[in-house]
Structures are given as C-alpha cells and as structure tokens.
Sequence to fold (307 residues):
Amino acid sequence: MKSIRVRAPASSANLGAGFDCFGLALEDPYDIVEVSITRGNGMHLKISVEGYPVPLEPERNTGGYVALSMMRDFGLEDGIEIKIWKNIPPGSGLGSSAATASAVAYAIDKLYDLKLSQDKLIRYASLGEIVSAGTPHLDNVAPAILGGFTIIAGTPPKIYSFKPDDRLGVVVILPYASKASTYEARKILPTMISLSSAYRNVGYGSLTVLGLILGRIDLLRDGMRDEVVERIRASHGFAQLYDEVRRLAEELEVGIALSGAGPAYIAITYHERVESTAESFRKIFEEKGIGCRIYITKVGRGVYEVT
Ligand code: HSE
Fold:
C-alpha cells in the first residue's frame, strides 16, 4: 500500500475588503491527511475522520469530492483511502474545508506523480469548496496550497502569492457560536454594490496589501475594513459582537476582520503584542457570556508532506 501524509493549514479569507480575493495561510490550526492507494480492490474511495466530525460520503466530503474529480479526470482505477485528522473546526471561517481539499489534491498529485502545476492543484482543490460553499471560490485553497498571502484577480482568475513581513503575528478569536454554512453566508450577499462602497473598499484593500508586505500595523488597522460583506453578515448573525470587536481593534491599534464567512475573527499585530491582544478580545466576549477559543499563531506555510 502506497501512502502519503500531509499537513494542510487553516486559512483566513477576505481580510476585510478582499472578499473572494485575499487569503492568508495560518501556522495553526492545521489538518493532517493521509491518502493511500489500495491496489487490487478496483476503483473505490473510503474516508475516515478523527477529531471534528465531517461527512464521510465522498460526494459530501470536500476531500472526497476532489479525489473523485481527480480519479475521473486521470483515469485512476485503484482504491483510495483518505484518513483525516480534523483539527480545524468546520464552519468556523478558518478554511477547514479548503485544508482537507488542498491536502487531498496535493497528496494524489504526489502519489500518482501527476506533476500538476500549482495553479492546477489549486483548481482541483477549489472543487471541494463546491461542497461547502456552493461555488469553487479560490481564496482559501490558494493560501492552503501556496502558503503566505494570496490574491486572486482577473477573469479567468489568476493567483498571486506574497510573503508577508515576518514581524506580523496573528490572533484568531473563534466565538463558540453556531453558524450556518458558508453557502448560507453567501446567499444573503448583494449582487450589486454602490460606486462609493467600491472605491472605499479599493482603498482598504490596497492598505491591507501594503500593510502585510511592509509589516505596518498602522496600515492594517486602517485597511482591514469592509463596506460590503461584513456588516450584512453581522446583521444576519454570522458575526458576534461586531461593533464591540471593531471598537476594541481601533483602541488596541490592530487590524481586525471577520475571518471568511465567520464566526472567527482574525486580528493582526506585531508578535510581541499577540498575547495582550488575545486577552483583550477574550475579555469582551466573556463579559457578554460568550466563550471563545483563541489561536495565537502566525502566517503559515502551504500544504507539505510530513512523516
Ligand atoms: N470568500 C469566502 C466568503 C470565504 O467570504 O464567502 C469563505 O471561507
């Protein structure tokens, strides 16, 4: 039995104005996924999971869906087994579905020596997002594969990746709040936006990119904002204590955004301020009786093989 074990990072999409466009890989949390070829059994796919539960039927599992697509496209006629150690909480806005999908695309490419380009791998991984979001958006799978900070732009979309400044640390605040699916969180969004929202978001997005590259928290503080998606999601209950969180970020002078479709928030500050930032956010949630899980982390690598 030939197998490969890989580690795939959580990721935070949007970062404010960069809806479906910006994505950041995180060092922690991450999934471990082992993919094995079980020859002689004919074509079949078996999935097992430890950790957070996710669907095991291949068509409903983000990794399973990717595997089925690759098996079909490349005529892979073996049995394939996928074991997932799911450490990234699903439905948290931390790219849990993208991590598994990216891990499976990467592992199958290596196992069968397909030598797919990174662009192709990202496209295959994005098929997994159809299962959770209803659309193959690229802003979580791109950082999950490439690591660092990624930008999706153009039609057809092209993927650009950058290494943010090393001085930046990340705090993820994940309130214990129930959340509908990413699909639900997208259904409520407008299809048209005003010109004034568009130009303000271009300004915010530009500051965010510069802040990440130059390691300037003042730019991230002013840039990690959004005029279009976050407030609508907050008003539909996809974000908790939205105004309080924004006010605190202003006070602490850190960048803050709803992570993907929420309910997690991502705060970016200098490494030496991550602990105090985490405590301040924990406090405002606890004062309202909302528990939260905090990850103190940093910008992460893309998916890679582990032993
Ligand atoms: N850009 C996507 C969204 C990310 O906000 O719906 C989902 O994780």
